[in-house]
Design a protein that fits this description.
Length: 428
């Protein structure tokens, strides 16, 4: 879930993941390192997030490096934790569980005793790398958690990945929707590294926003951290239910934007295109001009709705979530066999495609094989007669006829007899 690298200060945003153990469900939050201040705005923002995490926590895991021993920085962290406030609605500060990490072999067991003097009792000995002692750690966490109602399950929450190139306002949008500084915002490119899940609730519904790292051309990727960030972004698209693809309305559509659009289209996930920073747009150009420009330069997402917004001012930000909900509903569309059979019969009258291989393409019948995205199997005379343009046309007509105009669908063309034509699935 979190990027791991020997470089100090890799973790910036708080990365949270739900865990269930021994009948208890809790959220584990990985924070940046205390004491990693570097005098920059990003460093200050990291420390603010740590402070907010300490204040909100029901239990704090103080992780130390058994190989390094007790350092001045550990003593500084211990002093900070001893001075922690009780937190909102609590009579006493949250308890602290001391965890001695990197006890990879028995030779390091004795070294953990040195940390007694930090004042948090006997440390639990673990090796995260070797996965040693983790069961005992989970038991200790479950035993120390306060009695509380279980948090709402995330299985039913709509997961929405926020993607785009660098500095288009993804983190600003997530914070605006969460109404809190959940992720760090900076003008410095590459501020967000991990894919950060932020849970928000509104109107009795739960949503999980996945803030992702901004992408750029592969040949400009500088180091392993940026490579891992790209991988986290791609994984976020795979595990989400809908994508918010953010563009900066002040900038032209670039090659990076087009590559992102291609990946989103290939994923089969519903997509809302957000034109952000409308508060700074050219007043001489109307919304129609911007929409037409985006449609012309991102033809692969021609079915995706476009929302004009400003994450900075909050203008129409919630419209993105409402649209994502609607697209998720469309992506779950199921058609009756009777309707699909009528569509198959009507297909010959929809258009007169160019004849290929001296044969006119014919559709005998259609069946639906899945949802999210809607998937259809078309039994035809010869898949090779169906050109890419005609397949896209068929997909468009199916979307229109089935009431799922704004989501991608998949077409699997099968020949009338085994061995005839290559078949294959079309993305449309």
């Amino acid at each position: 879930m979190s990027i791991v690298d020997p470089t100090p200060g890799v973790t910036r945003d708080c990365v949270a993941v739900p865990i269930t153990h021994a009948g208890r469900t809790f959220e584990l939050v990985d924070t940046g390192g205390i004491g990693m201040e570097d005098g920059t705005p990003i460093g200050a923002a990291v420390q603010r997030q740590i402070e907010a995490g300490i204040e909100a926590a029901d239990l704090i895991l103080f992780v130390v490096d058994v190989r390094a021993g007790v350092t001045p920085l550990e003593e500084k962290v211990a002093a900070r934790l001893r001075q922690r406030p009780a937190g909102a609605g609590r009579a006493a500060p949250a308890p602290v569980l001391l965890v001695a990490n990197k006890v990879d072999t028995a030779a390091f067991e004795a070294g953990a005793a040195e940390f007694f003097r930090l004042g948090f009792g006997e440390p639990l000995r673990v090796s995260a790398l070797q996965r040693l002692g983790l069961a005992d750690l989970l038991d200790a966490i479950a035993a120390r958690l306060p009695a509380a109602a279980a948090p709402p399950p995330l299985d039913d929450a709509l997961r929405i990945a926020v993607v785009g190139k660098r500095n288009v306002g993804k983190s600003t949008l997530v914070n605006a929707l969460a109404r809190a500084e959940r992720v760090i915002v900076s003008e410095i490119p590459g501020t967000t590294r991990d894919a950060v899940d932020v849970r928000i609730e509104r109107g009795g519904k739960t949503f999980v926003l996945i803030d992702t790292a901004g992408l750029r051309k592969r040949r400009k990727v500088e180091d392993a951290i940026e490579l891992y960030s790209r991988m986290r972004t791609e994984a976020a698209v795979r595990r989400c239910d809908a994508v918010l693809f953010l563009l900066d309305v002040r900038e032209p559509v670039t090659e990076v934007d087009q590559k992102i659009a291609e990946r989103v289209e290939a994923s089969g996930k519903p997509c809302v295109i957000g034109l952000n920073k409308w508060d700074a747009a050219d007043a001489a150009r109307g919304p129609e001009a911007y929409l037409a420009y985006v449609r012309a330069h991102l033809p692969g997402l021609g079915f995706a709705p476009i929302v004009i917004l400003s994450a900075k001012t909050g203008f129409r930000t919630w419209s993105l979530i409402e649209m994502a909900e609607e697209l998720h509903r469309q992506a779950g569309t199921r058609a009756t066999t009777g309707l699909l059979n009528r569509l198959a019969k009507a297909a010959a009258e929809w258009a007169h495609p160019r004849i290929t291989r001296s044969r006119l393409p014919k559709i005998y019948y259609i069946t639906q094989t899945g949802v999210h995205p809607p998937r259809f199997r078309l039994f035809v005379n010869d898949p090779r007669c169906f050109t890419p343009d005609y397949r896209r046309f068929l997909a468009s007509r199916l979307r229109e006829s089935l009431g799922c105009r704004e989501v991608p669908i998949r077409l699997d063309l099968r020949g009338k007899r085994a061995g005839r034509g290559s078949g294959g699935t079309s993305h449309a």
